[in-house]
User: Fold this.
Amino acid sequence: MLVTGIKSKPVYAPLQADTRGRYHLMVGMGVGAAPLLRVIAEMKSAAAQSMMHTRVLYVPDSGSGQGAGTGGVAEPDEFRSAAVGEVRVFEGTPALLEKFRATLSESLMGTRLYVAGPESFIGLVMKIALEFNLNKDEIRAEECGTLARRIYCIHCRATTEQVRTNIVRCIGCARWLLVRDHYSRRLAAYMGVMVDAESPGELPPVKEVFL
Assistant:
């Protein structure tokens, strides 16, 4: 029942430092710290002068309960010891996104954005980046961590978070939704369509597919 192969599904590549940028803004969640630290190491080697113009906005993955030694989630001190220009650590994603929006409003020409973390987190960051008209040459993103999805119900417009199964009950209208691969960058979510519209009550087996 899962509809696959849809071109709107995002494709991500490993992060790499862009030494052509004058300013570097890094935004990460949980295990996304590792790719960001890797990019910082690359910049130290190839363009050390960029370090003072590098800012990090980071939120630990509160659901993992793991530190750098066990789950790959870096402690904030690892960013601070990297000698970048600024490090801000947030208790939750909403606070980080608020600061991210404010930071973009003050950003100058030549800024490069690096995003790392679960896809649902990347989507929320990208949604704001698009509002500020950042182009694809200015943004880099690496997916890591949980594959759980944000699902937008096309029937009631509610968004259900952290979906790991092929079908899910909408938190808004309680319909059972088929999780599609069709992704909206504007909504930062995958589309959910009523799965039993033609045969009410007939549901496929619920399977965990986004772990």
Remarks:
- The beta strands are 23-29, 54-59, 86-89, 111-117, 139-143, 149-153, 159-163, 167-169, 176-184, 189-194.
- Residues 149-194 form one domain.
- The first strand starts at residue 23 and ends at 29.
- The longest helix spans residues 33-46.
